[in-house]
């Protein structure tokens, strides 16, 4: 039996969710929002259901395979699975109950768990994911294979972002990490570059190429679509977005006397504002964002090496970074812990010139009665969160530990957390942002800007 039903199907990790409801109920809109979160389209508007091997499978009728209706835009192409096993039904037609009882729908003798949701809720995609997690355990369901690729394919990194944020310096740093780097590459040449790398002798080298608003026919939305298509085809391709504060970008262009590429006859601030709007989709979709506002060229190169040089396995790269609140929060911090409640070694004249890496300072900080319970709870929290971040596909996580000046308490705690996570089987990176500053624990700390060791890029 292969009935066709009026529905939309999307899948996550090989498990398909069937969205049921009348025309205009919001099936395609909800599917689009789920796809935006990493789901894959199976079929839109009409779904072919097939009972096979004791399971229900969903696929698209041939004429509409790989197509989805986007209201106000039209019918657009979307990378899609040829088939996926149906694990859950979401009914969009009725009124959801606050605390519903377990329910199911029968399709050809196969009972499928069912939930009722309102597709217009802002949280609807999250509710679909939670319903799938609650009702259907993750399984390794067969997924149709993507188009075959060579056994060894080089990873590709796109470097983009704001002009003046350090793209040229980043590409040079990547060359030092054995990347083949190309700047200002038109998107339609990606396939040619990829194929040429496959034809060389020896193991293929990873590729890095810069794309920004200077690129001919630059279109951020089209670039995002192309990235997602390549990923669906099995290409290991990631996007790095370089950001920087508007004030710092203006200063860099002023110091180097360069014109902003989007403001040839206008103030640099106008070009910066326009570029931020044009590149917003790239920042939203980036696998990694590095803010270079307070980074020197050396800092940026170190950050690139830390983030990319040790993440070849594709897992979660964890960075523990100590810092001083006097110099501001790290702009790329995901989690921030404040250590200013601990006893401050700065007020001990003998300890003041030392740092939290010195045993005497570490012992002083650890002697505070609040140290052990606080660090125990933070470590437990991190050990709980890290696997979850990894399961959700997050590639990079920065844990920021701060005190006033960033030289004593934050450094000692960061080292302790690094040791605990390492003992638990993780491999976190350890960075002390402000440890090289002067000994005044309340000083306003500064960092050499990118333009201080080279031209703005």
TrEMBL record:
Alphabetized, the UniProt keywords read: ATP-binding, GTP-binding, Nucleotide-binding
Q: Which residues bind ATP?
A: 161-168
Residues annotated to bind GTP: 212-215
Q: Which GO terms describe its biological process?
A: regulation of carbohydrate metabolic process
Pfam families linked to this entry: Hpr_kinase_C, PapZ_C, RapZ-like_N
Q: Could you state a single Gene Ontology molecular function term?
A: phosphorelay sensor kinase activity
Occurrences of domain RapZ C-terminal (ranges):
317-435
Q: Does the keyword RNA-binding apply?
A: no
What is the protein name given in its UniProt record?
RNase adapter RapZ
């Amino acid at each position: 039996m292969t009935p066709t039903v009026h529905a939309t199907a999307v899948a996550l990790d090989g498990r398909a969710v069937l969205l049921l409801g009348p025309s205009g109920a919001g099936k395609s809109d909800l599917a689009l929002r789920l796809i935006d979160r990493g789901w894959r389209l199976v079929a839109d508007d009409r779904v072919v259901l097939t009972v096979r091997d004791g399971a229900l499978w969903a696929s698209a009728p041939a004429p509409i395979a790989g197509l989805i209706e986007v209201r106000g835009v039209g019918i657009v192409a979307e990378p899609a699975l040829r088939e996926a096993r149906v694990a859950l039904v979401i009914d969009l037609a009725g009124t959801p109950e606050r605390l519903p009882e377990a329910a199911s729908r029968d399709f050809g003798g196969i009972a499928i768990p069912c939930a009722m949701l309102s597709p217009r809720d802002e949280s609807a995609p999250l509710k679909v994911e939670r319903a799938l997690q609650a009702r259907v355990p993750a399984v390794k369901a067969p997924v149709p294979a993507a188009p075959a690729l060579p056994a060894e394919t080089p990873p590709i990194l796109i470097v983009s972002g704001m002009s003046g944020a350090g793209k040229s310096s980043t590409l040079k740093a990547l060359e030092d990490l054995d990347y083949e780097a190309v700047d200002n590459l038109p998107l339609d040449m990606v396939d040619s570059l990829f194929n040429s790398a496959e034809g060389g002798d020896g193991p293929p080298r990873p590729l890095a190429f810069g794309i920004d608003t200077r690129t001919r026919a630059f279109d951020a939305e089209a670039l995002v679509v192309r990235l997602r298509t390549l990923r669906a085809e099995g290409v290991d391709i990631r996007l790095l977005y370089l950001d920087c504060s508007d004030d710092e970008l203006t200063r860099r262009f002023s110091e180097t006397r360069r014109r902003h590429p989007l403001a040839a006859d206008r103030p640099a601030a106008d070009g910066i504002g326009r570029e931020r709007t044009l590149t917003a989709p790239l920042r939203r979709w980036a696998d990694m964002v590095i803010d270079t506002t307070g980074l020197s060229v050396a800092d940026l190169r170190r950050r690139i090496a830390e983030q990319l040089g040790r993440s070849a396995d594709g897992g979660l790269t964890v960075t523990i970074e100590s810092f001083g609140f006097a110099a501001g929060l790290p702009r790329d911090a995901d989690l921030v812990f404040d250590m200013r409640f601990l006893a401050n070694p700065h007020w001990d004249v003998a300890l003041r010139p030392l740092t939290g890496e010195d045993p005497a300072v570490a012992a002083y900080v650890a002697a505070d009665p609040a140290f052990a319970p606080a660090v125990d709870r933070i470590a437990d929290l991190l050990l709980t969160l890290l696997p979850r971040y990894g399961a959700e596909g997050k590639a990079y996580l920065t844990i920021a530990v701060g005190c006033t000046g960033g030289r004593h308490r934050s450094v000692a705690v960061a080292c302790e957390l690094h040791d605990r996570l390492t003992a638990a089987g993780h491999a976190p990176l350890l960075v002390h942002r402000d440890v090289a500053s002067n000994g005044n624990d309340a000083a306003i700390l500064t960092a050499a800007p990118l333009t201080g060791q080279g031209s703005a890029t």
